[in-house]
Amino acid sequence: MTREQFIELVEEVQGPLRRFLCVLCGGDAFRADDLAQEALLKAYLSFEGFEGRARFSTWLFRIAYNCFYDWRKAESRNPAVLPGGGSGCRSGAAGDPAIADIGSSGSVDGSAVAGVRRSGSAGGYGDGAGIEICSDEEADARFMYQQLYMAIDRLPVKEKAVVLLFYMEEKSVKEIVEITGMTSVTVRSHLFRARAHLRSFLHNLDK
User: In total, how many domains does the chain have?
Assistant: First the structure.
């Protein structure tokens, strides 16, 4: 794989990667960005050894998942530690755009609760952006999604990761096995339990 091919593939997958990490981190976009930067840096330093036995996105998601678990281990020892060892994650590889350009396309928009959305140039994020009131139907739909994210956030970490990969990122069980290192039986077990937990939580919200 050439550097140019690596950058092109990163541009395709960085949005879903950040979205996965953001939800996995409980909506903490700053932490997700740090972990995404760390994962991209590690991938950049080793992409020449990528043999293509798995899809590029699966390979990169596995690196990111490992970064997330490394951060969790570090936090359990020292709650004040930053993901990726602090500022090192954001430095990138000599300013390479593949490493530096992690945008917010995968973030969870908290304005869904209030039933509003951004409007203006560049999809609502450019100059002169204002606030547009959503219809009641749109607000209800967004609130339902917000409830779903709240339910997912209450899942145990491994169940949450499996649900996000299977439903949000549309990964197969085989790909989830490659990303998480779990067995296929364990993945299916986590999916089964996660669905039961989500049904229970959403049912209780409706009461």
Answer: 2
Residue 96 lies inside a defined structural domain of this protein: yes
For residue 83, being part of any structural domain is answered with: yes
DSSP conformational letter for 100: H
38: domain CATH number is 1.10.1740
Range of the domain at 32: 3-100
Q: Which helix (H) or strand (E) holds 184?
A: helix 184-206
Residue 129: count other Cβ atoms within 10 Å of its Cβ: 14
Type of residue at 122: A
As given in the structure block, the two tokens for residue 151 are 């339910």
pTM over 0.85? The answer is: no
Residue with tokens 């937990």: 197
pLDDT tens sequence across 110-142: 333 233 333 333 333 344 444 444 455 554 455
Select from 103, 104, 200 the least CA-distant residue to 152: 200
